[in-house]
Structures are given as structure tokens and as C-alpha cells.
Task: structure prediction
Amino acid sequence: MYIKDEEGTEDQEMKEIKVKIPVKYHWKLHTLKLTTDAYISEMVRTALDGYFGEVFESDDEEAEGNEPEAEVEAA
Result:
């Protein structure tokens, strides 16, 4: 199975893995599948893309010596 990369120009090979997750996550994923007509694998891929985007973004900021921006509350 192949997917398009973020630019949509190159294909990336997909690797199937088997993981154990808590039952409550399985039920939540299954509920989303039924209510959105999306595949569980798509939902997991989207969640992982978001997670890794945040993790690597914070790694890049630390490597550059920048501190993450603090949220400012409106007065």
C-alpha cells in the first residue's frame, strides 16, 4: 500500500504493524468509524501525523535555542 507525501508528489511505502491499545481507545476509534465513515487506519495516521508534527516541532525549537511561545490571555 502506498500514500502520497505531504506535497503529493512522491509515494511512500506503508508498513502494517500490530499494536495493543486500551479497550477504551478501540471503542472510541470504532465509534468514530461508524459516525464518520472513515477507516480506523486513516484516523490513527492522522493522529500520529499530528503527534509527530508537535514532537518534531518542539525538537526543532529546542535545537535552534528558541523557547516555545507562551499563550497570552486577553485582558
About this structure: The beta strands are 2-4, 11-13. The two ends are 51 Å apart (CA to CA). DSSP finds two helices and two strands in the chain.
